[in-house]
Phosphotransferase
Amino acid sequence: MVAAAAERVVAELREACAAPAARLNEVAAAMEAEMRAGLREEGGSKIKMIISYVDNLPTGNEEGFFYALDLGGTNFRVLRVQLAGKETRVAKRESKEVSIPPHLMSGNASELFGFIASALAAFVADEGRNQLFQGKQRELGFTFSFPVRQTSIASGTLIKWTKAFSIDDAVGEDVGAELQTAMEKHGVDMRVSALINDTVGTLAAGRYNDEDVVIGVILGTGSNAAYVEEASAIPKFEGELPKSGNMVINTEWGNFSSSCLPITEYDQALDDESLNPGEQIFEKLISGMYLGEIVRRVLLKIASQSTLFGKVNHTKLKTRFILRTPDISAMHHDETPDLKIVAEKLAENLKIKDTSLETRKMVVEICDIVTSRSARLAAAGIVGILRKIGRAVPGDERRSVIAIDGGLFEHYAEFRQCLESTLVELLGEEASRSVAVKLTKDGSGLGAALIAAAHSQCQ
Ligand code: ADP
Ligand code: MG
C-alpha cells in the first residue's frame, strides 16, 4: 500500500495542475488579449510583442553564400551556407562550434565580441582560394537569443542577459553594432544583415521548407514563440508599412501570466526562489529548465510527509535543479515491467533506494501530471496565436503549420504527443486537419542565414 499521506499529495497535485479544455480555452483567450495589448503600445502587456523588422521570410528562391552566427548558450556556432534556389535549396553547409570561455560570460562586451569576431575570422579564412564572394559583400545573420529591443532588422539593444551570461556593460547597447565593430577590428569583411532571435529563426527555417509555416515556437531550456502578423494590425508600429504587408512578431510569451493558469504551491516556491521572481511565469510552467525541478519539489514534499521513500538522507532531494527534465523524461518513458529505469534514476539522482513498484508508479504519475500540464499549456498558447491571426477558425480553409524547435519537444515523446493531441482537442477534429506541427531543428543557424538572404541588399 502506498502511504495515504503520499497519495493525498499526489491527488492535490493532480487537482491543482488540472488543465481541462475549458480552462485552456480561457488561457488561449487571455494569451490573445495580452498579444493585442502588447501590439497596441510599448509596455502594454507583460508579453513584449517585439517587432522583429523581419518583413520578408525566405521563399526558397534565395541564392548565394551567407554566414550565420548563433549565440545563446555555452557554445556559439558559426555557419556558412550556399543557397541554390528552389530545386537544390541548401547546396552546401559548413559549420563550426566554439565553446565560450566562462570568464568571458561575465567580463566585458568588447572581450566577448572580440573573441567571437576572431573565431569568425578563422572560419572566414578557410573559404580558401575559392573566391566565393568575388568582390561581393559578405552578409551575416546573427541569432542572439536574449531579449533585445529591436531598432531595425540588423540592430537592437540588449534588455537583459539571461542564462549564464552577465556582462553589465553590454546591457542597453546595440548588439548588432558591437559585433560589426568587433568584426572590423579583426579584419572580417562582413556586414551584419540581420539580428534575430531563435524563435524568429525557427519560423524562417520552417517557412523555407514549407510555405504554410506561420508560427515558430521554442520548447527547450526556455520557451518563446514568434509568428507572422499583418503589419497594419500593429498599432504601435511607427513608420512606413512594409511592402509585404507582413511583420514577424517575437512574442516573448515566456513572460505571460494570468489568473487562469493552474499554479501550484510548488510553482510558487520555485518562482520565489528563482533568479527572476515574478517573471517568466508561463516559461516556468512549461519549459525544460523547470519541469524536473517541479517534480523534485513534489517528491520532497512526499518525503517530508510520509515514509514512502524509507529512511533516506534528504540532502540530495533538497538540492535545487538536481532532477533534470531529461531524467523525468527517462522515468516517464520507462517500459520495463518493474520500472527499473525509475528505480535507477531515483537512486542515482536523489539517493532514494529500495522503492516498491507502487512507489515507482506514483513517481511516473507525478512526471505525467507535471508534463501534461506543460504540454497542454503550450498547446493553449499556440491556439491563442492561431486565433489572433484568424487561423484554424470556422471559415478558414488555409493550412497552418507550426515550426517547433527545442530539446523538450524533440526528445520528450510524451510531451510532444500530449501537445499534439491537445491541439486537436482545442481546435476540433475538423479544423485541426488543416493544422500541422513540424520539428524544425536548424532555426538559429540556417534560419539566420535565410533571413540575411531574404533581406540581402545584394539580391
Ligand atoms: P536551448 O533551449 O538551450 O537552446 P535545446 O533546444 O537543445 O537548448 O534544449 C535543451 C533543453 O531540452 C534542456 O534544457 C532540457 O530541458 C530539454 N531536454 C533535453 N533532452 C531532453 C530529453 N531527453 N527529455 C526531455 N527534455 C530534454
Ligand atoms: Mg536553442
Remarks:
- The longest helix spans residues 357-388.
- The chain has a mean pLDDT of 94.
- Residues 72, 198, 220, 444 surround magnesium ion (ligand 2) (CB under 6 Å).
- The first strand starts at residue 50 and ends at 51.
